[in-house]
Amino acid sequence: MTQVLTVGVGADLVERFTEASGGDLVTLGVEALDAEGGLLARIAEAGGPHVVVLGPAVPLERAFVLAGHVDVAAPGTSVAVVAPADPDLWVAAMRAGVRDVLAADASTSDAAAVLGRAADLARARWEAGQAAGGARPEHRVVVVTSPKGGVGKTTVATNLAVGLARSGAGSTVIVDLDVQFGDVASALALAPEYSLPDTVHGAASNDPLVLKTFLTRHPSGLYVVAGSESPAAGDAVTAEQVGRLVETLSHEFRYVVIDTAPGLSDHTLMALEKATDLVLMSSMDVPGVRGLRKELDVLQELNLVPPGRHLVLNMADSAGALSMADVETTVGVPLDVVLPRTTAVPLSTNTGAPLLESGSRDAVARGLQTLLGRLLPDAGPRRSGLLGRLRAGSR
Ligand SMILES: Nc1ncnc2c1ncn2[C@@H]1O[C@H](COP(=O)(O)OP(=O)(O)OP(=O)(O)O)[C@@H](O)[C@H]1O
Ligand SMILES: [Mg+2]
Q1: Whole-prediction pTM
Q2: Under CATH, to which class is 4-134 assigned?
């Protein structure tokens, strides 16, 4: 990259800039402005110099217009004009986007000062661009777990994933980490060509582009890493491979939703290491609720409770032996979402049509929307208090 590009500048001043830049400059006549592409093309050819000096051979009005163009199209390059030291002209020049005005008889140190300011500005703009470009939207890895089986993990994971994919908040992938008996594909009525083991071997394991070709697409736009076809093939997938897969997916997708097998397998623990959110579930019975408390304790001991923690009680049933107060006392912390038992859920499971896909008005669908809201950007204040949530669910 050249430091200085001069256009229509007199020999003396070119000499000063040559000294100030250590000879790192390109010198052009004013006719270069009329060549194809104009000044912006010359700036690109010079590799984006820190400063363009427009000499007396470039009329000031034209210099001001050019400065405006450069300010917009090449923000890393400052424009300096050679003009008499007139305060009014200075103000007009600055307004036009000129960064420096210097006299035709400027010294080498004047030239060096112009160069220094331009370099500082170029660096500041570059850093600001990096910060803006580098601030990627928050990526979330959501792990759905429960100590016991059959409590609705797959139901919740598939609905959340479809809801996120349809929300427009960002690309979403669901991973079936129930490595032996995963049924995410069935819950989404998909017949996948590839499954989990394909995504952790060979080129897919180290090339995100290849990995994407092994994912299955759901009509909602959701990507799916389907569970393995046989328990043996699933067992052959190691926790380390799962860790790498989740890591890669979390860079490629805004949301990674992970369905798991009951309990805390090595795969689930590995997923939790990468998680930003834990959806911990239980059904409304004594063993389930006690298990929930125990799992929470274990995860806290292991330091594996991620920043987003969402406790979900499923199949809530006021006719059962347990009251909500019993459940909250046993768990020791308030539940975040309560989903009642309804007939719409098994129907949706059996037809492979998630409730959040079909726009169902079922009470479970409304509870799932509440959970979804906790994961979407700019989610409003979280509802707290079990009674309020129950009322919301039963409305
Ligand atoms: N709120 C509910 N009301 C009625 N039925 C439900 C509800 N939630 C889940 N079910 C049903 O319970 C069964 C088990 O649900 P699901 O497969 O989601 O649980 P799981 O925790 O993933 O099970 P597993 O541990 O075997 O993976 C399904 O048939 C589902 O339709
Ligand atoms: Mg399941």
Answers
A1: 0.67
A2: alpha beta
Rounded Cα–Cα distance for residues 102 and 95 (Å)? 16
**What is the atom index within ligand 1 of the atom nearest the CA of 158?**
18
Amino acid 347 reads L
Pocket test for ligand 1, best of 144, 145, 148, 154 (most atoms within 8 A of CB): 154
- Among 352, 384, 357, residue whose Cα is nearest residue 370: 384
Cβ within 8 Å of residue 291, ≥6 positions away? 146, 147, 148, 282
Ligand 2 centroid–CA 329 distance in Å is 27
Tens of pLDDT, residues 345-380:
999 999 999 999 888 889 999 999 999 999 998 644
Fold (CATH) for 140-394: Rossmann fold (3.40.50)
Q: How far apart are CA 222 and CA 293, in angstroms?
A: 32
pLDDT tens profile 88-147: 888 888 888 899 999 999 999 999 999 888 888 877 777 776 666 555 568 999 999 999
Q: Is 39 exposed, middle or buried (0-12, 13-18, 19+ CB in 10 A)?
A: buried
Burial of 47 (0-12, 13-18, 19+ CB in 10 A): exposed
CATH 3.40.50.300 positions along the chain are: 140-394
- Domain boundaries for CATH 3.40.50.2300 within the chain: 4-134
Q: Running DSSP on this structure, what letter comes out for residue 228?
A: P
Ligand with minimal distance to 156 CA? 1
**Quick one: which of 73, 75, 32 has its CA closest to 51?**
75
Supply the residue whose CA is at minimum distance from atom 30 of ligand 1: 346
